[in-house]
Each structure stands twice: as C-alpha cells, then as structure tokens.
Amino acid sequence: MGELNLRPLQEADLPRLRELFAASFGQNRAQDYDRWRFIDTPYGLAPTIVADDGEKLAGSYTIWPTLLNIGGEVVRGGQSMDTMTHPEYRGKGLFTKLAIACFDQLAKDGYEALYGFPNANSYPGFIKRLNWDHVGDVPHWSRLITPLAEKPAPLPALSRMGTRIVFKTKSRGLHVEAQRPDDDTVNAVIALHTESKDLCRIERNASWYAWRYSPPFGRSYQWFTAFNGSEPHGFAVMGFDTDKATGGEAQLCEVIGTDEAKAALIAEAVRVCYRTYRKALKTITNDPAVIAALRDNGFIRRSEMRTIVKPLTTRLFKANIHNFDAWRFMGGDFDVY
C-alpha cells in the first residue's frame, strides 16, 4: 500500500477505475457504458479526482459534466456521481479529501454550480463536511400497468384490466407517432416550450439528446412526437431494458412541449407499456406541468429523492439555485435513467 497521489482522472485510468467500482460495489458495468459515462461526454472527460497508490486506485470522486441554465444564463456545472472508496481504504476520510480536491479543480476550470441526489449513506457527508445545501426532494412517480406480472395466469391479465379501469389516460386530441424528431425540430420545441426566467434546469439541445440517449449499457429508448396536424408540438423519450422485449419496468425520461402535448405523449407511453406487458411506467420529476399530465394519466407519487446543490463561485446567479421551487428536474437529469 503506497502513498496516495490525488490527481485528475486520465483516459488510461479507465480499467483501474472499473476495478475500483467492482471492489466498491461487488459488481461491474459494461466497459462501453463506463467509457460513455466517464470519457465520451459532450464536454470531454468527466471531472474526476482519483487517489492512486501506485498499484490500484484507492478512491475516486466524479462530477458528471453538463451545462446549467440558471435564469436564462448558461453556466458550466455538473452532477455529483459515483463516489467510490476501495474497502481497504475506508474510514480514513478519503471521500472528503477527494471531493474537496475535485471542487478546487472544477472552480479553476470555470465550473460554477453543482447538483446531486445522494443516497442515505453519503448524504450526511455532503451536508456536514462538504457544505452542500439540501434544497428539497424530487418525487418519484409510478403508473401501474401489470402489477401482478410475475404471478400465475390469469392474475396478470386481471391486474392489467384493473389498472385500465382505475387509471385513465387523457390524450387531449393530439396525434402521436413513435419517431424521433429531427435535430431542428428538437431545438425548436425546446426553444418554444422551455421556461428559463427565474428557473434552474439542465441545458438541453439536440446534441445533448443524441449523446444522452445512445449509451450502450443495456437500455433501449423509444421516442415519441406529438403533432397538431402536421406541426410538432412536443416529444418524449421512454427507456427500457434491451434484454426484455416485454415485461419489466419502463422509465419516462423526457417530456417536453405544450401542456396538451405532454398529456398526449404520456398517454401514448402508457399504451405502449400495455402493448409490451410492462409491470409499471416510472419517472422522476418536480416539474408542475409534467406532474399535471402524469396525474391525468394515472401516475401516483411513490417516494422522494433528496436534492442537494453547491455553488463554486461567489457571484450571484440570475436565479436562486438554493430555491427548490426554481428547479425543474426530469428523468434524464438523473444518471441512472
């Protein structure tokens, strides 16, 4: 066990970073997924500080880079993710040292604000030792499709019938097609139907979508576009495991457009889940307009996810990142969706 060298991640570190993940969590992910996650982001190498002892990586702290739209101003930011400490090095305060070193480097590189969704184990460290601010909790939402999918027949069919009767869908009259809009349409819909004044959100554009929903990690994504006549009024993205053509759960990752389009898109996603015998359709959001459309289509609030933020600059933003009501989160903002 050598002396620890805290330094930025390099591309050549990826194999040892994967070994650290396996040692920390007892499993590993696809190599292509980790390359997408750490190396091939739209903003370059994910800012990461590793603790190198010469033989192995003892720990790492990573920020998933993104752009944040804060009150209409676009700044560099990121999501805290994949905090790892090798079992042989736990209890030595390495998490705090790695995080502080990462924040210092981020500030030098022009990053201005961070957000995160810590689990119960890491939450106290972020709040008490790293000066993050707990601003609120993002709700989980779920629409039951076949709640008894794993039970013997005829229970699955009866449960599907029951959810159709109890939970209605409201399409609002728009026509929805299972297709991805072209890049110009994506950018136009975002420009027309994304509020920015006094709000905080992850900045999206067609290039971001092309990267975000093409990772090779065992998940497939279905796009939907809502039309009023021939005019696109919104789009949505739904994800599901590629090794399950039917069954399992689906995730509603994106919904953007007019209020009518949101309802129509969610209704179509629900119908697709019925056709493919999904157990449930789930999402995470605190966006009031999306929540209204979710409720219209039978979604129920299930649980919440802690949300924390941290500024890396002393200047004032055009919106208050410490005000949870100013934030708009959707499934794709969470690295697990």
TrEMBL record:
PROSITE patterns in the record: GNAT (PS51186)
Molecular functions per Gene Ontology: acyltransferase activity
InterPro entries for this protein: Acyl_CoA_acyltransferase, GNAT_dom
Gene3D superfamilies: 3.40.630.30
EC number in record: 2.3.1.-
Keyword presence, Acyltransferase: yes
Keyword check for Transferase: yes
Segments forming domain N-acetyltransferase: 4-154
Keywords: Acyltransferase, Transferase
Protein's name according to its UniProt entry: GNAT family N-acetyltransferase
Species for this entry: Noviherbaspirillum album
